[in-house]
Amino acid sequence: MSSARTAPAPADATFQPPTHREIRTILGGLMLGMFLAALDQTIVATSIRTIGDDLHGLSLQAWVTTAYLLTATITTPLYGKLSDVYGRKPFYLLAIALFVVGSLLSGTADSMYQLALYRGVQGLGAGGLMALAITILGDLVAPRERARYQAYFLAVFGTSSVLGPVIGGFFAGADEILGVAGWRWVFLVNVPIGILAFVVIWRVLHLPPLRRVEHRIDWPGALALVVALVPLLVVAEQGRSWGWTSGQAVACYLTGLVGLVLFWLAERRAQGDAILPLHLFRNRTFSVGAAANTVIGLGMFGGLATLPLYLQIVRGQTPTEAGLTLIPFTVGIMTGSVVAGQTTSRTGRYKIFPVLGTILMVIGALLFSRFGVETPFAQIFTSSVVFGLGLGLTMQPLVLAVQNAVPVRDMGVATSSSLFFRQMGGTLGTAVFLSLLFSTVGGAIRDAFERLATSPDLRAALSDRALLADPANAAVVGALSGDGTLPSLDDSSFIGALDPRLARPFLEGFAESVDLVLLVAAGIMVLGVVLTVLLPELPLRDVSGIQGRLAEDADADAAGATAAAATRSGTDDAPPATPAGVTAVGGVTAVVADADAARRVDEPPR
Q1: Other CB atoms within 10 A of residue 116 CB
Q2: Hey, which CATH number is domain 18-206, 3.30.450.20, 3.40.50.300, 2.60.40.730, 1.20.1250.20?
Q3: Element holding 485 (H helix, E strand)
Q4: How many angstroms separate the CA atoms of 145 and 175, rounded?
Q5: Residue 326, Cα to own-chain centre: how many angstroms?
Q6: Annotated domain spans of the chain
Q7: What's the predicted TM-score (pTM) here?
Q8: Which of 147, 213, 400, 601, by CA, is between 20 and 30 Å from 340?
């Protein structure tokens, strides 16, 4: 049952909420910024092999990814907290500028060490691009109307996941474009897009001045966060090559644990000034949402990291073809996000969508886990639509729920924290699932060879003189007739050159290991279903973040003036002031400043 919408009375009569047309223009700039961050991850992953070969440092490619991931993850909560205190627009422009500078530098790198450093500069900007875009939308639009606009953001995410491999494959495959090596355009293409985003935001994003909240900058917390995350993210990226129980890995575990303890102590001491205020975890919506985002990131990014490998290794597709094959995945994301956004805007109800979405993600992962060497592409497309639909129904309402549940002054840090937990889950999932894949694929391939050893095809292949004379088959033939040591899978390109009869066990082994990974991802997503069921559903505010802040400031001024007048008159019959942390907005009593209270009171149920 929905309630009638209230007409909030802004505290500042000079502030006029933007029209739908103005919001769409602002959204254009925000989406360009988000597109930069989302596209960069997939476009670089496709071309990193070409880049490593050209810069003579393929063995260092993991550090190029790690540098970007480190700076982006660490700065995400920093952008949220600082923008709550000093305003959104300056920090969003700073994020775009840092990303553009990092992209320009990356396009001029002469070594993998330089590229890793410049990618770190890119990450400094990327940490704010997505989090602040969603937060700025929350400033301008009330939660009930916000849902339909956030669908555009998920469309950007889905589109970039498809375009990234296509564009990256095109640039990596070109020797030169306009006299510049093709792979360098992977980074240089960000420059004109970033400049356009900067100009649009500079010209069209006009936020009213809000009363600055005086906070100390939590430098101890920021330093402790670096100490905690750097070693943990490094071991997540490098653990498979080091060995998860190696001395280097153990040192990273211990250092990260010490950093986490120091971070908890620093945040406890900083209280309201903290980068990640601990009092937010007493808000059930925030704490459940943080756990759900972590699990969804774990299952989503971890599971999806293996799908391109399946398409390229088992099905023999190029990166560009694999990207095009995943177009139905994007269709599912866009459909789910539009349905969730439009329905939430009309009804004010949102909890059902993450519940249904996580269930669909479980079903999608289970469908993925049944892929084989000859799975029809129609089945791959259908499974991708189901998984993408679940993702589209889930991601947007979770962020909306957290934004709606916290005080308006904490919306920036709450939004960035939600994305922070999702990214941490994704990083952990990618590391764990790829480790699981490559630790089991060798055994799966050996089992496939044993299973096919008596098959007529393989027996005929081993007696085929033309096959035995082909140098491309020599390593596998030698392994089968010798000590059984198969070629290293660190470079899987040799599989494509093998005789199809010798390649078959490799393909089946890879498919079986991919199936195992996606089956584990489905099991993890079951926990996501449980968490979304536990997510509270609060009535959606009918005021934007800016209107809430202005109303809060006005009520604080009124309360102060009333108290001062009572003191001057020396009487006790002045009207009571509004209790601290409570403000009346549009006829609805709302808790906006008390960080321990997460929901409105005295509001009629919807």
Answers
A1: 21
A2: 1.20.1250.20
A3: none
A4: 48
A5: 18
A6: 18-206, 217-271, 442-510
A7: 0.77
A8: 601
